[in-house]
Amino acid sequence: MQNSTLSARFWLSLGLFFLCLSGMRHALSQNTSTIARLPQTTRAEAVERAKRLAAHPWVCGSSNLHASCSRAYKSDWTSGQHITGIPYNWGGGDGPDLFDQKLAKGLAAGAHSRYGVLSCTAGIDCSGFVTYCWGLSTAGHPYSTSNLRAIAGKPKYNWFTDMKPGDALNKAGSHVVLFTGYNSDGTINVCEASGSAARVICHKTTWSRYKGYIPLQYKGIDD
Amino acid sequence: MTQLSGFALLLLATAFLVETEAVGRSEVSVRVVPVAQVIRIPLASLADEKTPPVTGGDSPVLSYYPGAADELPEGPDGFDAFDDGSLLISDPLRDRVVAYDSQGKFRQSWNVGFAADSIEILSDGPVMVREAGTGLFHPFSREGKPMQDKVASAATSLEAQRLTPNSGSVTNGKGNQIPVRFNQPGRTLVSLENLAIDRSGQVYVALESTTGQATDSIDVAKTVRKYSADGSLLCETANLPLDYFIPPVDELRVHQGKVYQLMTTSKEVQINVWNTN
């Protein structure tokens, strides 16, 4: 009797083991296929895209000051103002070409979360910006700071000395920036879609502003 | 015999401990300056207001928006201090810069007409206020009157170099290199910034360091050191608080031997002051 119970337990355990193994293989193959589907990009391309968005010139027309779908909307700009850098637009993911098209159609230039996600505004937000820099489609805004980990891993190297241009600094639920290099004093250079600057900017900064952030390396990076 | 050996071992151990203590002391013997003053300025959320904020105005209260998922809070992120300790703080959501005395009492509001994210009071010169949306600096008199044309940058930055995980160098007022040694057990130097050189040539350097151990996320400690013009280390602030609610554009300023830090919480703007004199 005892022997048969033991035998049943053995076969049950073995069955569960193979079930787990099969699940792991399935998950692994799904993950591998996700990586395989990710478009490859070089670090130089990622940084070049970031700098192109930060250097993009545009002029705010009077029609770009108003958001037809929001009464509360207030523009960051003035009519006829010359701006450098794609405007910050919470929930947006527009590259330069799409942004210019939307601007020409009279959509409002940029918006903040306080106005909600608006269909009548143009520009890009922080996670849309990093997604765009990595060469991914931003249609439908598929990635936020909370799920970037699906396409980017946490590097094991020394973050303070060995990050590479094109990596990101991410704080889930809060903000993400693209790392573009170290300075000789140990501070860093980043590009970001900044709400407070109301546009995409590249600038020098210090580590203290990134306390609690996690470095991420895009899985499709072609080193 | 056993007692003698035991005594000798005890002596050796004591000598070792004294030696270790002496080495440790030589690294920490520098005067550590605690925070001398916390100036508190009230801060109010605009999130509940139904209409966009009215720009300008003479309210002593600064404004912020709390942000949302994937959006940082926005609000006061630029500041500077005059030699007498009085302050200018940006209030970008109301397109103004607000002046307070050295105790945090409201003095006046400069309605600059744009969202400002950085302020720099040039020594014996104008106040440079940076427009967040363009990055251009607008000069103002010390009383808040707009001056001539806007310029691309304010003061030139001072040089610093991180050389090894335990050393770096900064340039003093005469262009000479001052060595910066960082020998805190268990910590490595991550970065250093040459913040300011005062009228007597003393150099103020911000240092960021880390434990070097694997952590879940980025974690650094930050202090400010003061060096004499010839490179002697004079003193160092205690660790700065770094839990910023609104990440500052202007994190640190130095005037008349005092180090000022802009630290915003969800309830107030704090200006932390360390007196290195």
Write the layout of secondary structure elements.
The complex is a heterodimer of chains A (223) and B (277).
Chain A (H helix, E strand, L loop, with lengths): L1 H36 L5 H12 L2 E3 L22 E3 L11 H9 L3 E2 L11 E2 L3 H8 L18 E2 L5 H4 L5 E4 L3 E8 L5 E7 L4 E7 L8 E5 L5
Parallel strand pairs in A: 3-4
Antiparallel strand pairs in A: 1-2, 5-10, 6-7, 6-10, 7-8, 8-9
Helix pairs in contact in A: 2-4
Chain B lengths: L1 H27 L2 E3 L3 E9 L16 E3 L14 E3 L5 E5 L4 E5 L5 E5 L5 E6 L5 E5 L5 E4 L19 E5 L2 E5 L5 E5 L6 E10 L5 E8 L10 E7 L5 E5 L14 E4 L2 E7 L3 E8 L2
Parallel strand pairs in B: 1-17, 2-3
Antiparallel strand pairs in B: 2-20, 4-5, 5-6, 6-7, 8-9, 9-10, 11-12, 12-13, 14-15, 15-16, 16-17, 18-19, 19-20
Task: Give an account of the 3D structure.
The complex is a heterodimer of chains A (223) and B (277). Chain A is α+β, with helices and mostly antiparallel strands. Chain A has two domains: 1-32; 43-218, endopeptidase fold (from Nostoc punctiforme), CATH 3.90.1720. Chain A has five helices and ten strands. Chain A has helices at 2-37, 43-54, 96-104, 126-133, 159-162; strands at residues 57-59, 82-84, 108-109, 121-122, 152-153, 168-171, 175-182, 188-194, 199-205, 214-218. Chain A has a six-stranded antiparallel beta sheet with strand order 5-10-6-7-8-9. A two-stranded antiparallel sheet of chain A has the order 1-2. The longest helix of chain A has 36 residues, at 2-37. Chain A is globular, with a radius of gyration of 23 Å. Chain B is mainly beta and 277 residues long. Chain B has a domain at 41-155 and 245-256: Thrombin, subunit H, CATH 2.40.10.500. In chain B, the strands form five sheets. Chain B has a five-stranded mixed beta sheet, with no helix packed on it. Chain B has a five-stranded mixed beta sheet with strand order 3-2-20-19-18, with no helix packed on it. A four-stranded antiparallel beta sheet of chain B has the order 4-5-6-7, with no helix packed on it. Classes of the chains: A alpha+beta (223), B mainly beta (277). Chains A and B meet through loops of A and strand 11, strand 14 and strand 15 of B.
